[in-house]
């Protein structure tokens, strides 16, 4: 199978940067389109009730993520030679949004990093990569091993 559109999740962490680097290499090798996606959690949920803030408040929360994402995409284009690279900013649950975007935009591969959280941290925070793998039934998923990041510290 040849992949034609790759979505890579990016949250600013070293693990996600490693996933981006891997996705860039794959996109170059395969001549695939690359979509770099950042998912911002919903702006406000209090005591089980959803509070929908005014648009300026939402924009204030989203703007730093948008700027970081646009900077990364510009860097990818300049350093890799890839031309069909686009930033994607989504709001919601990271795993749900990545899979939904990939499926609705005819992408055929999702690339995510794995932070390697263990024990209580994984129980509390969950694992985006595990959830992406478990809910993505139409799109292949590549989980990038990031254990080398721990060895470098």
UniProtKB/TrEMBL annotation:
Leader sequence residues: none
Source species, domain of life: Archaea
SUPFAM superfamilies listed in its UniProt record: Adenine nucleotide alpha hydrolases-like (SSF52402)
Pfam family, any one: Usp
The protein's name in its UniProt record: UspA domain-containing protein
Family: Belongs to the universal stress protein A family.
CDD domains, A to Z: USP-like
Residue span(s) of domain UspA: 6-144
